[in-house]
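Office hours follow-up: a student asked to see two folded examples consecutively, so here they are.
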Amino acid sequence: MTNAKVRLKKSQNIDELQKIIGESSVAIVTSYRGIKTAELTALRVKLRNNKMGLKVVKNTLARKAAADAKKAALKTVFDGPIAMAYGYGEDVAAPAKLMLDHIASTKSTMTIAGGFLGDQPITIAQVTQLSKMPPKKVIVGQLLGALQGPLYGLVGVLNAPAAGLVGALDARIKQLEAK
């Protein structure tokens, strides 16, 4: 390949990475040393089926793409031979869960190296915590349930005097009818 073709290919890779880094809400960075191509392909298919992606990344290009995407703080994430599993949307825990499940179920030599959430780098421990989080819909449901409990209690307390009054009046009516 000529220098012009190499530069063009690098420029295209940077543009693709910039788009991924800029638009993804979360990415899990993994070291893929010792991984066979078939395993990486199977992981890509699994991620793609869940509306996520996997990209083997050249560090220098990824750092440039992160800077171009106005996420310069992420430059520290890209170190060593890495692949990046990324996801879009509200379920930021999904890529972490899928990657850790894959590593555990296949006994893969792949290791988690960190990642990023929005425009902030995250550590290996934070990736593990992220994987244990329930989806956003579950958290919202739990929050609503926690808010509803006290409200139902308040309604019960406010209804009690009225219910007591109705009960007392009903008893008095029955008492007068009995006479």
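And the second, which I mentioned at the end of office hours:
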Amino acid sequence: MKLQIKKISICCLAIWAILLVSVIPVVAQDVNSAQNAVETAIAGSQNILATIKDFLITKGTAFAIDLVAAILIFVIGRWLAKWISILASRAMTRAHVEQILVTFVQHMCYFGLLAFVIIAALDRVGIKLTAAIAVLGAAALAVAFALQGSLSNFAAGILMVIFKPFKVGDFVTVAGIQGTVQEIEILNTVLNSPDNVRIIVPNSQVTGGTISNFTANATRRIDLKIGVSYNDDIKKAKQVIEGVLAADARILKTPPPTVAVSELADSSVNFVVRPWVKSADYWDVYFDITAKVKLALESNGLTIPFPQRDVNIRSGGQKLPAGT
């Protein structure tokens, strides 16, 4: 029994010896590799430090001066850019320019000047941005093509804010759409239709067509066409219509309203009735005058005829009497 234990112990020792013999060279190799890596890193660091030392000795003073100058250029330039943008904003506000355009111009002025300041500061320390600017220009061109529709709306919005073809609250017709202007944005114009539907129209369509502004002027003319029978006295009809117009205080005296025979139609003698009113009273007066003229004509024994046609029937070449 003791002999077997002794043999097993000897075998274990032999296995440990074999393992140590095989592992020690590997460990030694790894240690050597790590030592070489450390030495390489130390040498690289020393080279970097030597390069920095040489740079500081030869060009350090000049670089420090350029760095301080670049910092001063950035700080002072940023302050000037902000100051100039604020001056531009105040000048436009005093000129009663729309606030949306004032804000846009202020931001564009500030960031444009700041870009030049940054370029100048980087150039002072020897960083050239010629290639970067060329790349940015190409990228901006590609973006411009991709956003062509939005950019056209943007440009149209700027023109609208500058030239002011209408303002918020005006009743207009733009791009074939009628409505009251609710908002004038950089890309879109928001309208409310007469039946209270919110309509958003791209600004490029607004400026690309005819714009009709019904509330831009203080006064408007109402155009009515009133017909009376051929059997009626047209002088009396004219007097009745003029009396209706004179009785309405909302109708302006200057320019005077026009009442005149305009057409001898198939079934009636037509008058044009053209009173002038304030723009805010247009539709109220339009509806009231239309109703009052009809009632006044009827109360004075005058008639507004409806279209009619006499038909003569012939039988066997003979004209039949009317009513048969």
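Two things to take away from it. Residues 60-146 form a domain with the Helix Hairpins fold (CATH 1.10.287.1260). The mean pLDDT is 80.
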